[in-house]
Amino acid sequence: MPSFQTNIRYEPVKPVVEFKTEFPQSKHYTEQPNPIGSYLGPLDASLPNSDKVPLLFQPFTVKDLTLANRIVVAPMCMYSSKDGFFTDFHLVHLGSYALNGPGLIIAEATAVLPNGRITPRCAGLWSDDHIPGLKRAVDFVHAQGGKIGIQLAHAGRKASAQAPYFKTDASEFWPEQVVAPTGGLLWDHHHLTPRELSLSEIQEIIAAFGDAAARAHKAGMDTVEIHGAHGYLIHSFLSPVTNHRTDHYGGSLENRARFLLDVVKAVRANFPAEKPILLRVSATDCVEHLEGPSWELEQTVQIAHWVRDAGVDVLHVSSGGNTAQQKIKAVPGYQVPYAERIKKEVPGLHVVAVGIITNGKQAEEVLEKEQADLVAAGRTFLRNTNFAMEAAVELNVKAAFAQQYSRGRTIHG
């Protein structure tokens, strides 16, 4: 890994601050004897290979985090916050997954600074005031035996956009504070033109990622995921399509990766060493015939080595999002080969595959072929919060139900 110099000083993780929630767990939560979604045996012991536990429903451990199964709810923007606050919607939204058995839930892209939100309705974690609402959802997930993380993000040049379900008043946007590695390069005509970040602003954003990681720990998060994909700020530093800087944050791959690695170091220094850190990346910009280079899989493989050495434990592999010129053929499993390549070439780094994972047999095949260690789904869970339990039935698995839902089990699962 190249040697990077930085002037940032990282503070050690502070003791957890206790935040009281409106509904204390001891009084209002029913204890689950087994984590929801954990393997209890075969549904039908007479079927061939019924004594073999499918990989998808085998526990997975990284550092001190053990998941009941290998199904991950990918982070998905809900555009349901005001001033960054988590609300009752988030409690119900995240809680509904906890009641239906995925091994890990990752809460939506959550801005580390106000101007890092994609829209005025996006979640934030730039203030201690955001912790109690988030902790309420975390406590509920934990009461079901589930595990939860949060995606820490800065939207960069894709910030200050209109939320899909709201007509936001113009006063709520921040056109002068839309920032990027290089100014003047707007994503498309629906987005604002960003200005170039100064070196001091870059340091402030790096520190904000570290501060947000500390707040995530105080809220009880089991893990954090750094958002380095989909054309948001970290990705736009990595890609030569969007990074034309001539200082030590631009030019060579080592320089373009410096911002990401500084963020990783800040997060690692402010999140307990025993808890894992995930990083989501776009393996490629998915562009052809551009004038000049773009972000490609070979560079992703290289930075995967660097981030592993800097403190990332799990790489969550996506693609695209950095330019409107992208060409993506979205078919079931279309991003899995990217995850497979990284898993094979970067030992010691766990990998999450994502990209139109729609059923249990498909997810199991990804694991059987050793293309990834975990399998994530996003829109599939929006269509069907019961995806993990239905995957269990497909694979002849009797998975643990929430006690309150156990009367709904049939002879078929």
From TrEMBL:
InterPro entries: Aldolase_TIM, OxRdtase_FMN_N, YqjM-like. Its cofactor is FMN. It comes from the Eukaryota. Residues 56-395 form the NADH:flavin oxidoreductase/NADH oxidase N-terminal domain. CDD domains: OYE_YqiM_FMN. SUPFAM superfamilies: FMN-linked oxidoreductases. Signal peptide: none annotated. GO terms for molecular function: FMN binding; NADP binding; NADPH dehydrogenase activity. Keywords: Flavoprotein, FMN, NADP, Oxidoreductase. The keyword Oxidoreductase applies. This is NADH:flavin oxidoreductase/NADH oxidase N-terminal domain-containing protein. It comes from Podila minutissima.
